[in-house]
DNA sequence: ACGTATTCTGGAATCATTCAAGTAACCGTC
DNA sequence: GACGGTTACTTGAATGATTCCAGAATACGT
Protein backbone atom coordinates (compact mmCIF):
# COMPACT_ATOMS: atom_id res chain seq x y z
CA UNK A 1 0.00 0.00 0.00
CA UNK A 2 1.35 3.38 -0.98
CA UNK A 3 1.26 6.41 1.24
CA UNK A 4 -1.22 7.94 -1.20
CA UNK A 5 -3.61 5.04 -0.63
CA UNK A 6 -2.96 5.24 3.08
CA UNK A 7 -3.97 8.88 3.21
CA UNK A 8 -7.12 8.31 1.11
CA UNK A 9 -8.11 5.33 3.21
CA UNK A 10 -8.10 7.59 6.24
CA UNK A 11 -10.18 10.24 4.52
CA UNK A 12 -7.28 12.65 4.13
CA UNK A 13 -6.39 14.65 1.06
CA UNK A 14 -3.21 13.69 -0.69
CA UNK A 15 -0.76 16.58 -0.81
CA UNK A 16 2.93 17.00 -1.42
CA UNK A 17 3.78 18.04 2.13
CA UNK A 18 1.87 15.09 3.61
CA UNK A 19 3.59 12.57 1.40
CA UNK A 20 6.96 14.16 2.12
CA UNK A 21 6.38 14.04 5.88
CA UNK A 22 5.39 10.37 5.73
CA UNK A 23 8.42 9.69 3.56
CA UNK A 24 10.77 11.42 5.99
CA UNK A 25 9.42 9.46 8.95
CA UNK A 26 9.49 6.21 6.99
CA UNK A 27 13.26 6.27 6.76
CA UNK A 28 13.93 7.99 10.08
CA UNK A 29 11.72 7.42 13.11
CA UNK A 30 11.52 9.77 16.10
CA UNK A 31 12.22 12.96 14.22
CA UNK A 32 11.30 16.32 15.70
CA UNK A 33 9.25 18.88 13.78
CA UNK A 34 12.39 20.80 12.87
CA UNK A 35 14.12 17.74 11.46
CA UNK A 36 11.00 16.74 9.57
CA UNK A 37 10.90 20.23 8.08
CA UNK A 38 14.53 20.05 7.07
CA UNK A 39 14.07 16.70 5.34
CA UNK A 40 10.83 17.73 3.66
CA UNK A 41 12.52 20.81 2.25
CA UNK A 42 15.17 18.75 0.47
CA UNK A 43 12.42 17.77 -1.97
CA UNK A 44 9.88 20.58 -1.44
CA UNK A 45 11.96 23.67 -0.61
CA UNK A 46 9.03 26.04 -0.20
CA UNK A 47 7.14 24.17 2.51
CA UNK A 48 6.42 26.40 5.50
CA UNK A 49 6.92 25.69 9.17
CA UNK A 50 3.19 25.72 9.82
CA UNK A 51 2.51 23.33 7.00
CA UNK A 52 4.70 20.77 8.74
CA UNK A 53 2.98 21.34 12.09
CA UNK A 54 -0.45 21.13 10.44
CA UNK A 55 0.49 17.93 8.65
CA UNK A 56 1.94 16.36 11.78
CA UNK A 57 -1.25 17.15 13.68
CA UNK A 58 -3.54 15.94 10.92
CA UNK A 59 -1.65 12.66 10.56
CA UNK A 60 -1.43 12.15 14.31
CA UNK A 61 -5.17 12.83 14.71
CA UNK A 62 -5.88 10.30 11.96
CA UNK A 63 -3.75 7.72 13.74
CA UNK A 64 -1.09 7.58 11.04
CA UNK A 65 1.53 9.10 13.30
CA UNK A 66 2.31 8.80 16.95
CA UNK A 67 3.58 11.77 18.85
CA UNK A 68 5.93 11.37 21.79
CA UNK A 69 7.09 14.14 24.07
CA UNK A 70 10.09 13.21 26.18
CA UNK A 71 10.44 15.57 29.14
CA UNK A 72 12.79 18.40 28.29
CA UNK A 73 12.78 17.72 24.56
CA UNK A 74 10.63 18.92 21.69
CA UNK A 75 8.01 16.48 20.41
CA UNK A 76 9.04 13.57 18.19
CA UNK A 77 6.96 11.64 15.67
CA UNK A 78 6.97 8.07 14.44
CA UNK A 79 4.95 5.94 12.03
CA UNK A 80 4.81 2.88 14.24
CA UNK A 81 1.35 3.12 15.77
CA UNK A 82 -1.27 0.82 17.19
CA UNK A 83 1.05 -1.43 19.14
CA UNK A 84 1.88 -0.53 22.70
CA UNK A 85 5.59 -0.10 22.35
CA UNK A 86 7.61 2.23 24.49
CA UNK A 87 10.78 4.32 24.25
CA UNK A 88 14.28 4.76 25.62
CA UNK A 89 15.52 8.32 25.69
CA UNK A 90 19.19 9.21 26.06
CA UNK A 91 19.90 11.65 28.90
CA UNK A 92 22.96 12.82 27.02
CA UNK A 93 21.89 13.57 23.48
CA UNK A 94 18.14 13.00 23.48
CA UNK A 95 18.30 10.09 21.06
CA UNK A 96 15.17 7.93 21.09
CA UNK A 97 14.77 4.25 20.34
CA UNK A 98 11.89 1.81 20.46
CA UNK A 99 11.43 -0.68 23.26
CA UNK A 100 8.85 -3.42 23.19
CA UNK A 101 6.78 -3.92 26.29
CA UNK A 102 8.78 -5.57 28.99
CA UNK A 103 6.59 -8.15 30.66
CA UNK A 104 4.17 -10.03 28.46
CA UNK A 105 0.98 -8.26 27.43
CA UNK A 106 0.73 -4.62 28.47
CA UNK A 107 1.49 -5.11 32.16
CA UNK A 108 1.78 -1.43 32.82
CA UNK A 109 -1.75 -0.79 31.64
CA UNK A 110 -3.14 -1.96 34.97
CA UNK A 111 -2.22 0.43 37.74
CA UNK A 112 -2.82 -0.66 41.32
CA UNK A 113 -5.21 2.11 42.28
CA UNK A 114 -6.61 4.63 39.85
CA UNK A 115 -7.98 7.21 42.32
CA UNK A 116 -11.24 7.24 40.41
CA UNK A 117 -9.55 8.04 37.11
CA UNK A 118 -10.80 6.21 34.01
CA UNK A 119 -7.45 5.07 32.63
CA UNK A 120 -7.30 4.77 28.86
CA UNK A 121 -3.61 4.32 28.14
CA UNK A 122 -0.22 3.86 29.68
CA UNK A 123 3.00 5.30 28.42
CA UNK A 124 6.41 4.06 29.51
CA UNK A 125 9.61 6.01 29.02
CA UNK A 126 13.00 4.59 29.90
CA UNK A 127 15.84 6.98 30.60
CA UNK A 128 19.50 6.16 30.17
CA UNK A 129 22.54 6.68 28.01
CA UNK A 130 22.84 5.67 24.39
CA UNK A 131 25.92 3.71 23.24
CA UNK A 132 27.60 6.84 21.88
CA UNK A 133 27.10 8.87 25.06
CA UNK A 134 28.22 5.92 27.19
CA UNK A 135 31.65 5.88 25.64
CA UNK A 136 31.96 9.65 25.84
CA UNK A 137 31.12 9.68 29.54
CA UNK B 1 12.92 16.95 60.68
CA UNK B 2 12.19 20.51 59.66
CA UNK B 3 12.59 21.81 56.16
CA UNK B 4 15.44 23.94 57.43
CA UNK B 5 17.31 20.85 58.57
CA UNK B 6 16.44 19.13 55.34
CA UNK B 7 18.00 21.90 53.27
CA UNK B 8 21.16 22.03 55.43
CA UNK B 9 21.52 18.29 55.31
CA UNK B 10 21.65 18.49 51.53
CA UNK B 11 24.24 21.26 51.58
CA UNK B 12 21.79 23.93 50.50
CA UNK B 13 21.44 27.38 51.96
CA UNK B 14 18.30 28.09 53.90
CA UNK B 15 16.34 30.94 52.36
CA UNK B 16 12.81 32.24 52.55
CA UNK B 17 11.88 31.33 48.99
CA UNK B 18 13.20 27.76 49.40
CA UNK B 19 11.26 27.18 52.59
CA UNK B 20 8.15 28.68 51.03
CA UNK B 21 8.42 26.44 47.96
CA UNK B 22 8.82 23.34 50.12
CA UNK B 23 5.89 24.47 52.22
CA UNK B 24 3.67 25.00 49.17
CA UNK B 25 4.47 21.53 47.81
CA UNK B 26 4.01 19.94 51.21
CA UNK B 27 0.31 20.74 51.27
CA UNK B 28 -0.31 20.48 47.52
CA UNK B 29 1.55 18.00 45.35
CA UNK B 30 1.92 18.27 41.57
CA UNK B 31 1.89 22.03 41.39
CA UNK B 32 3.22 23.85 38.35
CA UNK B 33 5.80 26.63 38.63
CA UNK B 34 3.08 29.25 38.25
CA UNK B 35 0.98 27.80 41.07
CA UNK B 36 4.03 27.46 43.28
CA UNK B 37 4.80 31.11 42.62
CA UNK B 38 1.26 32.15 43.46
CA UNK B 39 1.29 30.25 46.75
CA UNK B 40 4.77 31.45 47.69
CA UNK B 41 3.71 35.04 47.14
CA UNK B 42 0.90 34.76 49.67
CA UNK B 43 3.62 34.79 52.34
CA UNK B 44 6.53 36.38 50.44
CA UNK B 45 4.95 38.83 47.98
CA UNK B 46 8.20 40.05 46.44
CA UNK B 47 9.55 36.70 45.26
CA UNK B 48 10.43 36.81 41.58
CA UNK B 49 9.53 34.33 38.87
CA UNK B 50 13.15 33.37 38.40
CA UNK B 51 13.67 32.79 42.08
CA UNK B 52 10.97 30.13 41.96
CA UNK B 53 12.50 28.50 38.89
CA UNK B 54 15.96 28.62 40.48
CA UNK B 55 14.66 27.13 43.70
CA UNK B 56 12.75 24.39 41.90
CA UNK B 57 15.87 23.47 39.94
CA UNK B 58 18.13 23.57 42.98
CA UNK B 59 15.78 21.41 45.03
CA UNK B 60 15.21 18.99 42.17
CA UNK B 61 18.97 18.67 41.57
CA UNK B 62 19.45 17.96 45.26
CA UNK B 63 16.80 15.24 45.13
CA UNK B 64 14.37 17.05 47.39
CA UNK B 65 11.86 17.53 44.61
CA UNK B 66 10.80 15.42 41.70
CA UNK B 67 9.89 17.06 38.45
CA UNK B 68 7.33 15.54 36.12
CA UNK B 69 6.49 16.79 32.65
CA UNK B 70 3.26 15.38 31.28
CA UNK B 71 3.13 15.78 27.50
CA UNK B 72 1.33 18.98 26.58
CA UNK B 73 1.44 20.43 30.08
CA UNK B 74 3.94 22.62 31.93
CA UNK B 75 6.20 20.85 34.43
CA UNK B 76 4.85 19.84 37.84
CA UNK B 77 6.76 19.27 41.06
CA UNK B 78 6.26 16.99 44.04
CA UNK B 79 8.08 16.21 47.28
CA UNK B 80 7.56 12.47 47.11
CA UNK B 81 10.90 11.23 45.81
CA UNK B 82 13.00 8.13 45.95
CA UNK B 83 10.22 5.60 45.48
CA UNK B 84 9.33 4.57 41.97
CA UNK B 85 5.77 5.74 41.92
CA UNK B 86 4.01 6.84 38.78
CA UNK B 87 1.24 9.23 37.72
CA UNK B 88 -2.20 9.44 36.19
CA UNK B 89 -2.84 12.54 34.13
CA UNK B 90 -6.33 13.68 33.18
CA UNK B 91 -6.80 14.25 29.45
CA UNK B 92 -9.50 16.78 30.25
CA UNK B 93 -8.12 19.14 32.86
CA UNK B 94 -4.53 18.02 33.33
CA UNK B 95 -5.02 16.97 36.95
CA UNK B 96 -2.29 14.66 38.23
CA UNK B 97 -2.46 11.97 40.87
CA UNK B 98 -0.03 9.41 42.22
CA UNK B 99 -0.16 5.75 41.25
CA UNK B 100 1.93 3.10 42.90
CA UNK B 101 3.65 0.64 40.63
CA UNK B 102 1.22 -1.85 39.26
CA UNK B 103 2.83 -5.25 39.32
CA UNK B 104 5.05 -6.04 42.28
CA UNK B 105 8.52 -4.56 42.30
CA UNK B 106 9.31 -2.15 39.47
CA UNK B 107 8.31 -4.41 36.61
CA UNK B 108 8.66 -1.68 34.09
CA UNK B 109 12.29 -1.12 34.95
CA UNK B 110 13.30 -4.11 32.88
CA UNK B 111 12.70 -3.51 29.20
CA UNK B 112 12.95 -6.45 26.81
CA UNK B 113 15.74 -5.08 24.65
CA UNK B 114 17.64 -1.92 25.39
CA UNK B 115 19.34 -1.37 22.02
CA UNK B 116 22.63 -0.82 23.79
CA UNK B 117 21.24 1.90 26.04
CA UNK B 118 22.30 1.88 29.70
CA UNK B 119 18.86 2.22 31.27
CA UNK B 120 18.81 4.07 34.59
CA UNK B 121 15.14 4.69 35.21
CA UNK B 122 11.65 4.02 33.97
CA UNK B 123 8.79 6.44 34.05
CA UNK B 124 5.18 5.40 33.63
CA UNK B 125 2.39 7.83 32.83
CA UNK B 126 -1.23 6.75 32.73
CA UNK B 127 -3.67 8.82 30.71
CA UNK B 128 -7.38 8.99 31.39
CA UNK B 129 -10.17 11.11 32.79
CA UNK B 130 -10.42 12.30 36.37
CA UNK B 131 -13.70 11.83 38.26
CA UNK B 132 -14.77 15.43 37.62
CA UNK B 133 -14.12 15.27 33.85
CA UNK B 134 -15.82 11.87 33.64
CA UNK B 135 -19.13 13.26 34.81
CA UNK B 136 -18.83 16.32 32.58
CA UNK B 137 -18.17 14.20 29.50
C1' DA C 1 30.68 41.76 62.58
C1' DC C 2 33.17 40.80 57.82
C1' DG C 3 33.76 39.07 53.42
C1' DT C 4 32.61 36.21 49.78
C1' DA C 5 30.15 32.86 47.35
C1' DT C 6 25.58 32.03 46.41
C1' DT C 7 20.99 33.43 45.64
C1' DC C 8 17.51 36.76 44.42
C1' DT C 9 15.49 40.66 41.50
C1' DG C 10 14.04 42.74 37.23
C1' DG C 11 13.99 42.76 32.48
C1' DA C 12 14.79 40.88 28.16
C1' DA C 13 15.45 36.85 25.18
C1' DT C 14 14.73 32.09 23.57
C1' DC C 15 12.43 28.03 21.86
C1' DA C 16 8.72 25.24 20.29
C1' DT C 17 4.37 25.81 19.03
C1' DT C 18 0.02 28.13 17.77
C1' DC C 19 -3.15 31.82 15.93
C1' DA C 20 -5.05 34.66 12.13
C1' DA C 21 -5.98 36.05 7.45
C1' DG C 22 -5.37 35.43 2.80
C1' DT C 23 -3.96 32.38 -1.19
C1' DA C 24 -3.47 27.96 -3.39
C1' DA C 25 -4.62 23.23 -4.35
C1' DC C 26 -7.16 18.71 -4.01
C1' DC C 27 -10.93 16.18 -5.80
C1' DG C 28 -16.08 15.10 -6.33
C1' DT C 29 -19.18 16.60 -9.77
C1' DC C 30 -20.68 18.26 -14.14
C1' DG D 1 -11.39 17.79 -18.75
C1' DA D 2 -13.01 22.17 -16.45
C1' DC D 3 -15.73 24.11 -12.14
C1' DG D 4 -16.42 25.08 -7.52
C1' DG D 5 -16.30 24.33 -2.78
C1' DT D 6 -13.88 22.70 0.84
C1' DT D 7 -9.54 21.90 2.81
C1' DA D 8 -4.67 22.76 3.01
C1' DC D 9 -0.78 25.91 2.67
C1' DT D 10 1.80 30.56 3.09
C1' DT D 11 3.22 34.53 5.44
C1' DG D 12 3.69 37.02 9.53
C1' DA D 13 2.89 37.78 14.15
C1' DA D 14 1.76 36.12 18.88
C1' DT D 15 1.84 33.03 22.81
C1' DG D 16 3.48 30.57 26.98
C1' DA D 17 6.87 28.28 29.59
C1' DT D 18 11.32 28.66 30.59
C1' DT D 19 16.01 30.57 30.50
C1' DC D 20 19.75 34.09 30.19
C1' DC D 21 21.94 38.19 31.89
C1' DA D 22 23.72 41.80 35.03
C1' DG D 23 23.45 43.74 39.24
C1' DA D 24 21.72 44.01 44.23
C1' DA D 25 20.89 41.40 48.34
C1' DT D 26 21.59 37.66 51.56
C1' DA D 27 23.34 33.44 54.05
C1' DC D 28 26.80 31.75 56.76
C1' DG D 29 31.94 30.25 57.61
C1' DT D 30 35.69 32.77 59.59
UniProtKB/TrEMBL annotation, chains A, B:
UniProt cross-references to PANTHER family, sorted A to Z: TRANSCRIPTIONAL REGULATOR FURA, ZINC UPTAKE REGULATION PROTEIN
Subcellular location: Cytoplasm
Pfam families: FUR (PF01475)
UniProt family annotation: Belongs to the Fur family.
Keywords for this protein: Cytoplasm, DNA-binding, Iron, Metal-binding, Repressor, Transcription, Transcription regulation, Zinc
Keyword Zinc (UniProt): yes
Keyword check for NAD: no
Domain of life from the UniProt record: Bacteria
Coiled coil region boundaries: none
Name of the protein this chain belongs to: Ferric uptake regulation protein FurA
InterPro entries assigned to the protein according to its UniProt record, in alphabetical order: FUR, Fur_C, WH-like_DNA-bd_sf, WH_DNA-bd_sf
Gene3D superfamilies in the cross-refs: 3.30.1490.190, Winged helix-like DNA-binding domain superfamily/Winged helix DNA-binding domain
Amino acid sequence: MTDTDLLRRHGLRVTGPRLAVLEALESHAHLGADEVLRRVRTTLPSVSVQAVYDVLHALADAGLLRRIEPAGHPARYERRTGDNHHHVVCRGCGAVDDVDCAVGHAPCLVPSSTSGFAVEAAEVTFWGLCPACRTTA
